[in-house]
Specification:
Elements: H1 6-9, E1 14-19, E2 22-28, H2 35-49, E3 62-67, H3 73-81, E4 104-106, E5 112-114, E6 132-137, H4 149-165, E7 171-174, H5 203-212, H6 221-234
Parallel strand pairs: 2-5, 3-6, 3-7, 4-6
Antiparallel strand pairs: 1-2, 4-5
Length: about 240
């Protein structure tokens, strides 16, 4: 089935995007995102967030960094290109048919690929999909942190680009930190039993990226917990 967002990407295969403090090269490599996938995404939003929406547009508030647990770019792309969730992710079965997806995929040499429109909802992080932009990094097979320096620098540039483009973004987390948001106003998951344990992309990677974007003052786990405590005390 022909992807419905082809026109979005065929303007150019590679666009020079202005990032705060410099430029970065983002390559458009669209995954299949037909009307079927859009409809399945809308079903996911209704099931998990209780929202009956006409579009899958989001207002980004959070950037979530990941690793793919696969060390080959082409294999990673194949995973995201499928529209319907397969049987290889039993922990996700029963929580919706739409396949996992991501807005950005960073190869091991630091090349950045945009797989779908930045403000369409991707299924990549429980409880936060509707308010987040996700970045996957090729690597992390067998749970081993092998992400490269080039990927660190690419993530720093990409975070700067996204914050510059979307001033609504306030938070930067690793996937392994997502449960800090549970109980926070941005947390949206309605199913109390739908959680997965994550280790990616790890503390080393997040420390390095956070050092590189410290001047942006994006909030992480400590600030999220403080906001929850403030909210709890005010009630």
């Amino acid at each position: 089935m022909k992807p419905v967002w082809t026109a979005f990407t065929l303007i150019t295969l590679s666009m020079l995007m202005q990032a705060c403090g410099g430029t970065m090269n983002i390559h458009d490599k669209p995954i299949s995102f037909s009307q079927q996938r859009i409809d399945l995404t809308r079903e996911y939003i209704k099931q998990h967030y209780g929202l009956d929406v006409k579009t899958i547009d989001i207002e980004p508030r959070v950037i979530v960094l990941h690793w793919t647990a696969i060390d080959d770019f082409d294999r990673c792309f194949e995973v995201f290109n499928r529209e319907v969730l397969g049987g290889s992710r039993p922990e996700l079965q029963g929580a919706g048919q739409v396949n996992v997806s991501i807005q950005f995929l960073v190869d091991r040499d630091g090349s950045v690929y945009r797989l779908m429109p930045e403000t369409w909802m991707a299924r990549h992080c429980i409880g936060l999909n509707y308010v987040s932009i996700g970045v996957e990094n090729v690597g992390g097979a067998n749970g081993v942190d092998n992400l490269t320096d080039a990927q660190i620098q690419a993530n720093i540039a990409l975070v700067r680009y996204l914050k510059n483009k979307y001033p609504t973004i306030e938070y930067l987390i690793g996937h392994h930190e997502y449960l800090h948001f549970e109980g926070h106003p941005l947390w949206m998951e309605k199913d109390p039993d739908y959680r997965t344990k994550k280790v990616d992309p790890g503390d080393r990677f997040m420390r390095a990226v956070r050092r590189g974007v410290a001047d942006l003052h994006l909030k992480g786990p400590a600030e999220i917990e403080a906001e929850k405590q403030t909210r709890s005390g005010a009630q």
